[in-house]
Every structure is written in C-alpha cells, then in structure tokens.
Amino acid sequence: DPSDWTNEKEKLGLDFPNLPYLIDGPVKLTQSNAILRYIARKHNMCECGGSQRPGGGGPRGFVGGGLTLPHPSGGETEEEKQRVDVLENHLMDLRMNFARLCYNPDFEKLKPAYLEQLPKKLQELSRFLGSRPWFAGQKLTFVDFLAYDVLDQQRMFVPECPELKGNLAQFLQRFEALDKVSAYMRSGRFMKSPIFWRVAKWSNT
Q1: CB 54: neighbour CB atoms within 10 A?
Q2: Would you say residue 101 lies in a domain?
Q3: The whole model's pTM is what?
C-alpha cells in the first residue's frame, strides 16, 4: 500500500527517504547501488572499495571534463564509503531529473512542479552535509565534484534560492577555492554555460 510508505518514510531515520532501503543495525541506507556495495563489502565481495570517477555529461563538462586533479578518494572508513555510495546515486537521480525537465518540450508547464519540490531536496542535502567540510567527511571525495555540479546548476536555475545559502553556499565556495579548481575556472578552458545541448529548453547557449 503506497500510503503505508508515505506515512513511514520520514520515521526511519534515512538521509534521503526512498525505496529500496536497508536497515542493518546502525546502518541505514537508500539507493540500490549503495545497498549492493555495502552488502558486498560486508561479505568481502567487493575489491573496489568505492565508485568510479564520474565522466562529463554535457557541454560544459565540469565534472570529469577539462579539469585534472589528484585522484580524490571514494572514502576511507566504512561510514565514509556508505555516504559516498548513497550520495553518488542520489545526486545522479537529481541530475537526471533536472536534465529530463530541461530537455522536455513541456518545460514551462513542468517547471513550477520542479520548483515546488526543489527546496526539500536541497534541505536534505544540507542536512546530509551538516558541519562537515566535504560530503563524506573531512576529506575531498569524488562525490564532492558531483555535488558541486548539481548544486551549481540549481544556483544558476534559481539564483535567489534560500536553500542554497548556509552550509551549501559554504561548500560551493570551499570547492571553488581549491587551488586547481580556482585556476581552472579562471582559465579560458572553463565554460560556465551552456550546461545542456541546443535542443534543451534551458541553458542551451
């Protein structure tokens, strides 16, 4: 019964309430791949220890594009790996939902519904980040690159969004202040836009 899930999902202590989810003692996870990797690590069936670095997904190609950095990790402790796995998949969901909106011929009709749910999505990310400097913890991981890309796009889409203040704004500033990121963003290789290809209804030029 869908109403059972609606009534219970906020009571489970999940960072990003969704189906499927796993509760294994103190461990509470969502996202299929994150759950799979956790189970695999628990039973010594995973040698990778984390995810692969993401590739670029649009014209500006910030993530995995023209920027070369020392390889950030996928987390060191089990908790960090769980956070990386959950957030990677959650951010990819957010990215795909935004892309589907921007490429949809009914963009203007669908935009209000997207804007209505955006504050809650950003609040979840804000709570997940908390007082940490980076999303996994004290060290930069590859999901911080994904997070920057997703949050920067939303900042461009809704410049005055109040949910993009506070710790999320501090995260964006901290990421942009990284030496190699800062140098790259000042170079002629960096493109702030377009984010999407020309057939998109937003940020296509």
Answers
A1: 17
A2: yes
A3: 0.73
The pLDDT tens digits for 119-128 are 999 999 999 9
Is residue 46 pLDDT above 80, yes or no?
A: no
Q: Answer yes or no: do 87 and 153 share one domain.
A: yes
Euclidean distance between CA atoms 67 and 194, whole angstroms:
17
**Who contacts 39 (Cβ-Cβ below 8 Å, separation ≥6)?**
22, 45
Gap between the Cα atoms of 205 and 201, Å rounded: 10
Residues in the chain: 205
Same domain (yes/no): 38, 84: no
List, in sequence order, every residue forming a beta bridge with 22; answer none if it has no partner. 29
Q: How confident is the model at residue 37 (pLDDT cuts 50, 70, 90)?
A: confident
Residue 193 lies in a domain: no
Q: Which domain holds residue 173?
A: 78-186
Compute the mean pLDDT over every residue in the chain, rounded to the nearest whole number: 84
Ramachandran quadrant class, 24 (left: phi over 0; alpha: psi -120 to 50; beta: rest): beta
Report helix, strand or coil for 22: strand
Asked if 35 and 29 count as a contact pair (C-beta separation under 8 A), the reply is yes
Q: What is the CATH number of the domain that holds 39?
A: 3.40.30.10
